[in-house]
Input
Amino acid sequence: MHPNGALPAYEFNFSDVNPPVHAWACWRVYEMTGCQDKDFLLSAFVKLLLNFTWWVNRKDAEGNNIFSGGFLGLDNISVFDRSKVHNLEQADGTAWMAFYCSMMLKIALELALSIPAMEDIASKFFEHFVAVVDAMNSVGGTGLWDEEDGFYYDQIKYDTHKVPLKVRSMVGLIPICAVLVLDSDKINQLSGFKKRMAWFMQNRKDLSRHISYLRPDDNKQHKLLLAVPSDVRLRKVLRYMLDENEFLSKYGLRSLSKAYEENPYNYFHTEEGKTYSVKYCPGESDTLMFGGNSNWRGPIWFPIMHLVIQSLRDYYTFYGDEFLIEFPTGSGKSINLLQVADEISHRAISIFLPDSKGIRPYHCNSIFSEEHWKDLVLFYEHFHGETGRGLGAEHQTGWTALVAELIQLSILKKDCLLYTSDAADEEDS
Output
């Protein structure tokens, strides 16, 4: 990290940045090691404050909580190289900052239980989150939301108007990842934070309208939902995400809608007098953007898909079985969001499961079904949107190994169901 808080994406261009997932990563390390190492969490939080401030100062050009960020790890996903466009308002960049706020709030609340001074910082991130959500949904009328399509898009900002880049891609799905559920039991332990939050919700109704509040009739915990999309907008985004003719593949979530296979998206850049085009390309890239060895115009990528799955589980903790959605879209069958998360997980896991001939989809080669090869599992960088075939680097354990957690959660859930079933059988007997 630079003393000013910058964290470059890679060594060959210090100006490019990756999505700010560092707070999430630190929280996951803390959580997976038993939520005991407060010193680690505090040390990481102090450094993250520098990076967060850098993002606010450098990537929010007009100070209105609408962020840019450039390529943000999605290489060729847009109609052009987003790192070279300086008047671009980014749906993913803004959503990532909402996500960053939510994770910093989560960490601050955890630290505040033993360090009271952290309550003020928690209040700061609570209010900042709500401000970013308001901007994303409301600036200029509807922010980066397109009411006609029911989706979030990047926008090019000109002097007198804005032009949305209406490409349905992962850029418009990332906003659903910015979600945090606050329980009353923790809030009640933090009197300063609780008092400030109550004041904010009472006196800033223009912003607090984005906060969903659940107060059960019984004595269960009250809950607050902090999320970018409202329940209505969440349904509209999920309608696309769970459509097998759009994002939902047999093997997970495509990075670009399949709708552009037959009908590519075209954008005419008036200043350049040039037409840019985006076509669904489920395998290797058909462009040389970012070297041509990476493709976000159709293939399945585990990192964002993993966050989407986790977010669906978070939404379920708030909405429960009252929020049902058609899965797949058009099937006539509705399930809850936890079940949606499980269904997508199973599709992603199936990439690595051998078929009746012993061939795993990501190999697509019979040699890997032979005795000495069959258990040599490779973690490819990304996967073909239609066949599940492995693409790119063959040893990308940095993110594709996330499938291990999906498998672990799937096994734990099955064990839980078996335990519940056995207990029920014993009671019946």
